[in-house]
From TrEMBL, chain A:
Official protein name in the record: Heme exporter protein B
Pfam family, one: CcmB
Similarity comment: Belongs to the CcmB/CycW/HelB family.
Keyword Zinc-finger in record: no
Principal location listed in the UniProt entry: membrane
GO molecular function: heme transmembrane transporter activity
Entries under InterPro entries matching the protein: Cyt_c_biogenesis_CcmB, Cyt_c_CcmB_bac
Annotated source species: Celeribacter baekdonensis
Cleavable signal peptide: none
Statement: the UniProt record of this protein carries the keyword Membrane: yes
Segments passing through the bilayer: 12-37, 43-64, 96-117, 123-150, 157-175, 195-217
GO cellular component: plasma membrane
Keywords: Cell inner membrane, Cell membrane, Cytochrome c-type biogenesis, Membrane, Transmembrane, Transmembrane helix, Transport
Domain of life: Bacteria
UniProtKB/TrEMBL annotation, chain B:
PROSITE patterns: ABC_TRANSPORTER_2 (PS50893)
Keyword Transport: yes
Pfam family, one: ABC_tran
Alphabetized InterPro entries for the sequence: AAA+_ATPase, ABC_transporter-like_ATP-bd, ABC_transptr_haem_export_CcmA, P-loop_NTPase
ABC transporter domain span: 4-206
Keywords, in A-Z order: ATP-binding, Cytochrome c-type biogenesis, Membrane, Nucleotide-binding, Translocase, Transport
Protein name as annotated: Heme exporter protein A
A GO BP entry: cytochrome complex assembly
GO MF term (any one): ATP hydrolysis activity
Length: 218, 206
Protein backbone atom coordinates (compact mmCIF):
# COMPACT_ATOMS: atom_id res chain seq x y z
CA UNK A 1 0.00 0.00 0.00
CA UNK A 2 2.92 2.31 0.74
CA UNK A 3 4.19 1.47 -2.74
CA UNK A 4 0.90 2.57 -4.24
CA UNK A 5 0.97 5.78 -2.21
CA UNK A 6 4.45 6.68 -3.45
CA UNK A 7 3.57 5.71 -6.99
CA UNK A 8 0.55 8.02 -6.97
CA UNK A 9 2.61 10.87 -5.53
CA UNK A 10 5.38 10.30 -8.10
CA UNK A 11 2.85 10.26 -10.92
CA UNK A 12 1.26 13.47 -9.68
CA UNK A 13 4.60 15.28 -9.64
CA UNK A 14 5.81 13.97 -13.01
CA UNK A 15 4.87 15.84 -16.16
CA UNK A 16 1.19 15.53 -16.97
CA UNK A 17 0.38 14.72 -13.36
CA UNK A 18 -2.35 16.45 -11.44
CA UNK A 19 -0.18 18.38 -8.99
CA UNK A 20 -0.61 22.12 -9.25
CA UNK A 21 -3.83 21.89 -11.24
CA UNK A 22 -6.09 22.51 -8.27
CA UNK A 23 -3.69 24.96 -6.68
CA UNK A 24 -3.43 26.98 -9.87
CA UNK A 25 -7.18 27.11 -10.21
CA UNK A 26 -7.53 28.23 -6.58
CA UNK A 27 -4.98 31.02 -7.08
CA UNK A 28 -6.67 32.25 -10.24
CA UNK A 29 -10.15 32.20 -8.75
CA UNK A 30 -9.20 34.04 -5.58
CA UNK A 31 -7.11 36.69 -7.36
CA UNK A 32 -9.93 37.33 -9.83
CA UNK A 33 -12.61 37.88 -7.18
CA UNK A 34 -11.34 41.33 -6.03
CA UNK A 35 -11.36 42.45 -9.67
CA UNK A 36 -14.91 41.22 -10.03
CA UNK A 37 -16.44 42.70 -6.88
CA UNK A 38 -14.24 45.79 -6.61
CA UNK A 39 -11.54 46.71 -4.10
CA UNK A 40 -13.92 47.70 -1.30
CA UNK A 41 -12.23 46.05 1.69
CA UNK A 42 -15.40 45.90 3.80
CA UNK A 43 -17.19 43.91 1.14
CA UNK A 44 -14.21 41.64 0.46
CA UNK A 45 -13.81 40.96 4.16
CA UNK A 46 -17.43 39.87 4.34
CA UNK A 47 -17.24 37.42 1.44
CA UNK A 48 -13.67 36.16 1.99
CA UNK A 49 -14.52 33.02 4.04
CA UNK A 50 -17.10 31.91 1.50
CA UNK A 51 -14.89 32.60 -1.51
CA UNK A 52 -11.92 30.77 0.00
CA UNK A 53 -14.01 27.73 0.80
CA UNK A 54 -15.85 27.65 -2.54
CA UNK A 55 -12.50 28.04 -4.30
CA UNK A 56 -10.97 25.16 -2.35
CA UNK A 57 -13.98 22.99 -3.10
CA UNK A 58 -13.96 23.64 -6.84
CA UNK A 59 -10.19 23.23 -7.01
CA UNK A 60 -10.58 19.83 -5.37
CA UNK A 61 -13.34 18.85 -7.78
CA UNK A 62 -11.18 19.69 -10.77
CA UNK A 63 -8.73 16.83 -10.28
CA UNK A 64 -11.12 14.21 -8.91
CA UNK A 65 -11.78 12.27 -12.08
CA UNK A 66 -8.06 11.51 -12.35
CA UNK A 67 -8.14 9.41 -9.18
CA UNK A 68 -9.43 6.26 -10.87
CA UNK A 69 -10.07 7.10 -14.53
CA UNK A 70 -6.39 7.02 -15.54
CA UNK A 71 -5.83 3.69 -13.82
CA UNK A 72 -9.00 2.34 -15.40
CA UNK A 73 -7.96 3.38 -18.89
CA UNK A 74 -4.48 1.87 -18.82
CA UNK A 75 -5.65 -1.35 -17.16
CA UNK A 76 -3.90 -0.77 -13.82
CA UNK A 77 -7.18 -0.86 -11.94
CA UNK A 78 -7.89 -4.43 -13.14
CA UNK A 79 -4.43 -5.45 -12.01
CA UNK A 80 -4.75 -3.65 -8.67
CA UNK A 81 -8.08 -5.39 -8.11
CA UNK A 82 -6.38 -8.78 -8.54
CA UNK A 83 -3.34 -7.75 -6.46
CA UNK A 84 -2.97 -8.76 -2.81
CA UNK A 85 -3.99 -5.27 -1.62
CA UNK A 86 -7.65 -4.99 -0.57
CA UNK A 87 -9.53 -2.67 -2.89
CA UNK A 88 -10.69 -0.63 0.10
CA UNK A 89 -7.03 0.01 0.87
CA UNK A 90 -6.40 1.03 -2.74
CA UNK A 91 -9.22 3.60 -2.52
CA UNK A 92 -8.03 4.96 0.83
CA UNK A 93 -4.44 5.28 -0.35
CA UNK A 94 -5.43 6.97 -3.59
CA UNK A 95 -7.73 9.39 -1.77
CA UNK A 96 -4.93 10.19 0.67
CA UNK A 97 -2.51 10.79 -2.21
CA UNK A 98 -5.12 13.05 -3.80
CA UNK A 99 -5.37 15.03 -0.58
CA UNK A 100 -1.58 15.40 -0.32
CA UNK A 101 -1.32 16.67 -3.89
CA UNK A 102 -4.47 18.81 -3.93
CA UNK A 103 -5.89 19.55 -0.48
CA UNK A 104 -2.68 20.15 1.42
CA UNK A 105 -1.27 22.74 -1.03
CA UNK A 106 -4.59 24.59 -0.75
CA UNK A 107 -4.26 24.68 3.04
CA UNK A 108 -0.75 26.09 2.74
CA UNK A 109 -1.66 28.67 0.09
CA UNK A 110 -4.89 29.84 1.70
CA UNK A 111 -3.39 32.32 4.22
CA UNK A 112 -1.61 34.25 1.46
CA UNK A 113 -4.83 34.40 -0.53
CA UNK A 114 -6.80 35.40 2.57
CA UNK A 115 -4.56 38.45 2.67
CA UNK A 116 -5.61 39.34 -0.89
CA UNK A 117 -9.25 39.22 0.20
CA UNK A 118 -8.70 41.33 3.33
CA UNK A 119 -9.62 38.39 5.52
CA UNK A 120 -10.07 39.44 9.14
CA UNK A 121 -6.85 38.84 11.07
CA UNK A 122 -8.68 36.82 13.75
CA UNK A 123 -9.92 34.44 11.06
CA UNK A 124 -6.59 33.16 9.67
CA UNK A 125 -6.26 30.56 12.38
CA UNK A 126 -9.74 29.22 11.63
CA UNK A 127 -9.17 29.32 7.88
CA UNK A 128 -6.18 27.00 8.21
CA UNK A 129 -7.86 24.75 10.77
CA UNK A 130 -11.08 24.31 8.82
CA UNK A 131 -9.26 23.66 5.55
CA UNK A 132 -6.99 21.16 7.28
CA UNK A 133 -9.97 19.36 8.79
CA UNK A 134 -12.35 19.74 5.85
CA UNK A 135 -10.26 19.03 2.73
CA UNK A 136 -9.67 15.33 3.56
CA UNK A 137 -13.45 14.92 3.44
CA UNK A 138 -13.44 16.53 -0.01
CA UNK A 139 -10.86 14.00 -1.24
CA UNK A 140 -12.60 10.96 0.26
CA UNK A 141 -16.11 11.98 -0.86
CA UNK A 142 -14.61 12.77 -4.24
CA UNK A 143 -12.94 9.37 -4.45
CA UNK A 144 -16.36 7.82 -3.88
CA UNK A 145 -17.86 9.92 -6.69
CA UNK A 146 -14.95 9.04 -8.97
CA UNK A 147 -15.42 5.34 -8.18
CA UNK A 148 -19.12 5.52 -9.05
CA UNK A 149 -18.39 7.00 -12.48
CA UNK A 150 -15.15 5.16 -13.24
CA UNK A 151 -16.39 3.10 -16.18
CA UNK A 152 -18.22 5.93 -17.89
CA UNK A 153 -16.94 7.90 -20.83
CA UNK A 154 -16.97 11.61 -20.00
CA UNK A 155 -18.17 10.82 -16.51
CA UNK A 156 -16.88 14.13 -15.17
CA UNK A 157 -20.18 16.01 -15.33
CA UNK A 158 -22.13 13.21 -13.71
CA UNK A 159 -19.46 12.94 -11.04
CA UNK A 160 -19.71 16.68 -10.29
CA UNK A 161 -23.47 16.38 -9.95
CA UNK A 162 -23.08 13.44 -7.58
CA UNK A 163 -20.31 14.93 -5.51
CA UNK A 164 -21.27 18.60 -5.14
CA UNK A 165 -24.36 18.01 -2.96
CA UNK A 166 -22.22 15.85 -0.68
CA UNK A 167 -19.69 18.68 -0.42
CA UNK A 168 -22.26 21.22 0.76
CA UNK A 169 -22.22 20.37 4.51
CA UNK A 170 -18.43 20.63 4.60
CA UNK A 171 -18.64 23.97 2.82
CA UNK A 172 -21.32 25.36 5.12
CA UNK A 173 -19.59 24.35 8.33
CA UNK A 174 -16.16 25.42 7.07
CA UNK A 175 -17.24 28.90 6.08
CA UNK A 176 -19.34 29.20 9.23
CA UNK A 177 -16.37 28.46 11.50
CA UNK A 178 -14.30 31.16 9.79
CA UNK A 179 -17.15 33.69 9.97
CA UNK A 180 -17.74 32.99 13.66
CA UNK A 181 -14.03 32.95 14.40
CA UNK A 182 -13.62 36.35 12.73
CA UNK A 183 -16.50 37.73 14.81
CA UNK A 184 -15.10 36.30 18.03
CA UNK A 185 -17.96 33.86 18.59
CA UNK A 186 -17.80 30.25 19.72
CA UNK A 187 -16.79 27.90 16.90
CA UNK A 188 -16.96 24.53 18.64
CA UNK A 189 -20.27 23.34 17.18
CA UNK A 190 -19.64 23.84 13.43
CA UNK A 191 -16.05 22.71 13.87
CA UNK A 192 -17.17 19.50 15.54
CA UNK A 193 -19.77 18.91 12.82
CA UNK A 194 -17.14 19.37 10.13
CA UNK A 195 -14.68 17.07 11.88
CA UNK A 196 -17.47 14.51 12.19
CA UNK A 197 -18.17 14.63 8.45
CA UNK A 198 -14.48 14.12 7.72
CA UNK A 199 -14.14 11.26 10.18
CA UNK A 200 -17.24 9.55 8.78
CA UNK A 201 -16.11 9.98 5.18
CA UNK A 202 -12.63 8.63 5.85
CA UNK A 203 -14.01 5.66 7.76
CA UNK A 204 -16.91 4.61 5.55
CA UNK A 205 -16.46 5.83 1.98
CA UNK A 206 -13.47 3.63 1.03
CA UNK A 207 -15.78 0.63 1.48
CA UNK A 208 -18.54 2.18 -0.64
CA UNK A 209 -16.04 3.24 -3.31
CA UNK A 210 -14.45 -0.22 -3.43
CA UNK A 211 -17.89 -1.79 -3.92
CA UNK A 212 -18.60 0.68 -6.75
CA UNK A 213 -15.29 -0.17 -8.44
CA UNK A 214 -15.99 -3.91 -8.21
CA UNK A 215 -19.27 -3.37 -10.04
CA UNK A 216 -17.58 -1.19 -12.66
CA UNK A 217 -14.89 -3.80 -13.36
CA UNK A 218 -17.31 -6.64 -14.07
CA UNK B 1 -1.71 -30.71 -7.63
CA UNK B 2 -4.87 -28.99 -8.88
CA UNK B 3 -4.50 -25.23 -8.94
CA UNK B 4 -7.82 -24.24 -10.53
CA UNK B 5 -10.94 -26.32 -10.46
CA UNK B 6 -13.90 -25.16 -12.55
CA UNK B 7 -17.24 -26.91 -12.36
CA UNK B 8 -20.31 -26.31 -14.49
CA UNK B 9 -19.36 -22.65 -14.89
CA UNK B 10 -21.50 -20.10 -16.73
CA UNK B 11 -19.95 -16.71 -17.38
CA UNK B 12 -21.84 -13.58 -18.38
CA UNK B 13 -20.94 -10.30 -20.02
CA UNK B 14 -23.27 -7.38 -19.38
CA UNK B 15 -25.74 -9.75 -17.71
CA UNK B 16 -25.99 -12.01 -20.78
CA UNK B 17 -24.49 -15.50 -20.46
CA UNK B 18 -21.84 -16.07 -23.13
CA UNK B 19 -20.43 -19.47 -22.16
CA UNK B 20 -22.14 -22.15 -20.12
CA UNK B 21 -21.48 -25.60 -18.72
CA UNK B 22 -17.69 -25.24 -18.56
CA UNK B 23 -15.91 -27.83 -16.48
CA UNK B 24 -12.14 -28.25 -16.43
CA UNK B 25 -9.24 -28.17 -14.07
CA UNK B 26 -5.65 -27.06 -14.31
CA UNK B 27 -2.85 -28.79 -12.43
CA UNK B 28 0.61 -27.51 -11.72
CA UNK B 29 2.87 -27.97 -14.70
CA UNK B 30 -0.04 -27.67 -17.12
CA UNK B 31 -0.62 -25.10 -19.84
CA UNK B 32 -4.23 -24.70 -20.91
CA UNK B 33 -4.75 -22.84 -24.18
CA UNK B 34 -8.21 -21.44 -24.81
CA UNK B 35 -9.30 -21.22 -28.40
CA UNK B 36 -12.39 -19.84 -29.98
CA UNK B 37 -13.46 -17.14 -32.43
CA UNK B 38 -13.55 -13.45 -31.52
CA UNK B 39 -16.40 -12.68 -29.19
CA UNK B 40 -16.70 -16.27 -28.02
CA UNK B 41 -16.23 -15.20 -24.41
CA UNK B 42 -12.57 -16.07 -23.77
CA UNK B 43 -11.86 -12.72 -22.10
CA UNK B 44 -15.01 -12.98 -19.98
CA UNK B 45 -13.97 -16.45 -18.88
CA UNK B 46 -10.46 -15.28 -18.00
CA UNK B 47 -11.79 -12.30 -16.02
CA UNK B 48 -14.04 -14.66 -14.09
CA UNK B 49 -11.10 -16.97 -13.35
CA UNK B 50 -9.09 -13.96 -12.17
CA UNK B 51 -11.90 -13.03 -9.77
CA UNK B 52 -12.72 -9.72 -11.44
CA UNK B 53 -16.31 -10.77 -11.97
CA UNK B 54 -18.42 -13.35 -10.18
CA UNK B 55 -19.54 -16.53 -11.97
CA UNK B 56 -23.07 -16.33 -13.37
CA UNK B 57 -23.55 -19.94 -12.28
CA UNK B 58 -21.30 -22.79 -11.21
CA UNK B 59 -18.08 -22.56 -9.25
CA UNK B 60 -14.46 -21.58 -9.68
CA UNK B 61 -12.17 -22.91 -6.98
CA UNK B 62 -8.67 -21.55 -6.72
CA UNK B 63 -6.18 -21.37 -3.92
CA UNK B 64 -6.28 -17.88 -2.40
CA UNK B 65 -3.88 -15.44 -4.06
CA UNK B 66 -2.99 -17.97 -6.74
CA UNK B 67 -3.88 -16.07 -9.90
CA UNK B 68 -1.82 -13.45 -11.73
CA UNK B 69 -3.84 -11.83 -14.49
CA UNK B 70 -2.57 -10.05 -17.60
CA UNK B 71 -5.14 -8.36 -19.80
CA UNK B 72 -5.13 -6.62 -23.18
CA UNK B 73 -4.02 -3.44 -21.40
CA UNK B 74 -0.64 -3.68 -19.73
CA UNK B 75 -1.34 -1.36 -16.79
CA UNK B 76 1.80 0.68 -17.37
CA UNK B 77 2.35 4.26 -16.25
CA UNK B 78 3.83 6.15 -19.18
CA UNK B 79 5.72 8.69 -17.04
CA UNK B 80 7.43 6.05 -14.92
CA UNK B 81 10.50 4.23 -16.20
CA UNK B 82 10.52 0.53 -16.99
CA UNK B 83 12.34 -0.12 -13.71
CA UNK B 84 9.88 2.01 -11.67
CA UNK B 85 6.90 0.26 -13.22
CA UNK B 86 8.29 -3.17 -12.38
CA UNK B 87 9.48 -2.10 -8.92
CA UNK B 88 5.97 -0.89 -8.15
CA UNK B 89 4.35 -4.20 -9.03
CA UNK B 90 7.12 -6.14 -7.30
CA UNK B 91 6.46 -4.06 -4.17
CA UNK B 92 2.71 -4.62 -4.38
CA UNK B 93 3.33 -8.37 -4.44
CA UNK B 94 5.83 -8.14 -1.61
CA UNK B 95 9.04 -8.65 -3.58
CA UNK B 96 12.04 -6.49 -4.46
CA UNK B 97 14.04 -8.38 -7.05
CA UNK B 98 13.17 -7.39 -10.60
CA UNK B 99 16.44 -8.58 -12.18
CA UNK B 100 15.18 -11.95 -13.45
CA UNK B 101 12.05 -10.34 -14.89
CA UNK B 102 14.10 -7.74 -16.78
CA UNK B 103 16.46 -10.44 -18.07
CA UNK B 104 13.78 -12.91 -19.14
CA UNK B 105 12.03 -10.34 -21.29
CA UNK B 106 15.21 -8.67 -22.56
CA UNK B 107 14.40 -5.31 -20.95
CA UNK B 108 17.78 -4.69 -19.29
CA UNK B 109 18.87 -2.11 -21.83
CA UNK B 110 15.52 -0.30 -21.60
CA UNK B 111 15.22 -0.18 -17.81
CA UNK B 112 15.74 3.58 -17.41
CA UNK B 113 13.45 4.59 -20.27
CA UNK B 114 10.00 6.03 -19.52
CA UNK B 115 7.38 3.44 -20.42
CA UNK B 116 5.69 6.03 -22.63
CA UNK B 117 8.67 5.97 -25.02
CA UNK B 118 8.53 2.23 -25.59
CA UNK B 119 7.19 0.63 -28.74
CA UNK B 120 3.99 -1.41 -28.52
CA UNK B 121 5.94 -4.67 -28.44
CA UNK B 122 8.30 -3.40 -25.75
CA UNK B 123 5.34 -2.29 -23.63
CA UNK B 124 3.85 -5.73 -24.01
CA UNK B 125 7.11 -7.30 -22.89
CA UNK B 126 7.11 -5.06 -19.83
CA UNK B 127 3.48 -5.97 -19.12
CA UNK B 128 4.40 -9.67 -19.29
CA UNK B 129 7.54 -9.17 -17.19
CA UNK B 130 5.18 -8.03 -14.44
CA UNK B 131 3.98 -11.65 -14.18
CA UNK B 132 7.48 -12.73 -13.13
CA UNK B 133 7.45 -10.42 -10.08
CA UNK B 134 4.01 -11.53 -8.84
CA UNK B 135 5.33 -14.97 -7.74
CA UNK B 136 1.85 -16.40 -8.21
CA UNK B 137 1.41 -19.96 -9.48
CA UNK B 138 -1.38 -19.51 -12.03
CA UNK B 139 -0.85 -17.10 -14.93
CA UNK B 140 -4.11 -16.13 -16.60
CA UNK B 141 -3.19 -14.44 -19.87
CA UNK B 142 -5.42 -12.76 -22.40
CA UNK B 143 -3.86 -12.63 -25.88
CA UNK B 144 -0.35 -12.21 -24.49
CA UNK B 145 1.40 -12.25 -27.86
CA UNK B 146 -0.36 -9.27 -29.43
CA UNK B 147 2.21 -6.90 -31.00
CA UNK B 148 5.16 -9.15 -30.09
CA UNK B 149 7.73 -9.99 -32.80
CA UNK B 150 8.92 -13.54 -33.40
CA UNK B 151 11.93 -13.24 -31.08
CA UNK B 152 9.77 -11.80 -28.29
CA UNK B 153 7.19 -14.55 -28.70
CA UNK B 154 10.04 -17.02 -28.17
CA UNK B 155 11.11 -15.12 -25.03
CA UNK B 156 7.54 -15.26 -23.79
CA UNK B 157 7.16 -18.97 -24.57
CA UNK B 158 10.43 -19.68 -22.74
CA UNK B 159 9.21 -17.71 -19.71
CA UNK B 160 5.94 -19.66 -19.62
CA UNK B 161 7.82 -22.95 -19.95
CA UNK B 162 10.15 -22.01 -17.09
CA UNK B 163 7.15 -20.99 -15.01
CA UNK B 164 5.27 -24.28 -15.44
CA UNK B 165 8.47 -26.28 -15.03
CA UNK B 166 8.82 -24.73 -11.57
CA UNK B 167 5.36 -25.95 -10.56
CA UNK B 168 3.20 -23.16 -11.93
CA UNK B 169 0.42 -23.30 -14.46
CA UNK B 170 -0.87 -21.04 -17.22
CA UNK B 171 -4.23 -20.45 -18.85
CA UNK B 172 -3.73 -18.61 -22.12
CA UNK B 173 -6.20 -17.31 -24.66
CA UNK B 174 -4.34 -17.07 -27.93
CA UNK B 175 -4.75 -17.63 -31.64
CA UNK B 176 -1.16 -18.57 -32.47
CA UNK B 177 0.88 -21.72 -31.92
CA UNK B 178 3.36 -21.11 -29.13
CA UNK B 179 5.10 -24.45 -29.50
CA UNK B 180 4.77 -25.99 -26.10
CA UNK B 181 2.99 -29.04 -24.78
CA UNK B 182 -0.42 -27.67 -24.11
CA UNK B 183 -3.92 -28.82 -23.43
CA UNK B 184 -6.17 -27.14 -25.97
CA UNK B 185 -9.60 -26.17 -24.76
CA UNK B 186 -11.95 -24.93 -27.46
CA UNK B 187 -14.74 -22.84 -25.93
CA UNK B 188 -16.92 -22.80 -29.05
CA UNK B 189 -19.17 -25.79 -28.09
CA UNK B 190 -19.98 -24.12 -24.78
CA UNK B 191 -21.61 -21.07 -26.31
CA UNK B 192 -24.61 -20.13 -24.18
CA UNK B 193 -27.97 -20.75 -25.78
CA UNK B 194 -29.93 -17.56 -26.28
CA UNK B 195 -33.36 -19.21 -26.63
CA UNK B 196 -33.51 -20.35 -23.00
CA UNK B 197 -35.70 -18.18 -20.80
CA UNK B 198 -33.81 -17.40 -17.63
CA UNK B 199 -35.81 -16.61 -14.54
CA UNK B 200 -33.09 -14.63 -12.76
CA UNK B 201 -33.51 -11.60 -14.97
CA UNK B 202 -32.57 -8.95 -12.42
CA UNK B 203 -29.03 -10.34 -12.36
CA UNK B 204 -28.58 -8.11 -15.37
CA UNK B 205 -28.80 -5.06 -13.18
CA UNK B 206 -26.27 -6.21 -10.63
Amino acid sequence: MIRLFWRDLTLAFRSGGGFGLGLGFFLILVTLVPFGVGPNSERLMAIAPGILWVGALLACLLSLDRIFALDFEDGSLDLLATAPIPLEGVVAVKALAHWITTGLPLVLAAPALGFLLHLDSAAYRWLIITLLIGTPALSFIGAFGAALTVGLKRGGLLMSLLVLPLYIPTLIFGAEVIRRGAGGFLVATPLAMQAGITAGSVALLPFAAAAAIRVALR
Amino acid sequence: MKLIYVKNLTVARGGMPVLEGLSFDVSSGEILVLRGPNGAGKTTLLRTLAGLQPPYAGTVETAPDAVAYAAHADGLKTTLTVRENLMFWAGVYGGRDIGPALRDFNLDSLSERPAGNLSAGQKRRLGLARLRVTHRPVWVLDEPTVSLDVASVDLFAAAVKAHVASGGAAIIATHIQLGFEETVFDVTPYKARMDVVRDDFDEAFL
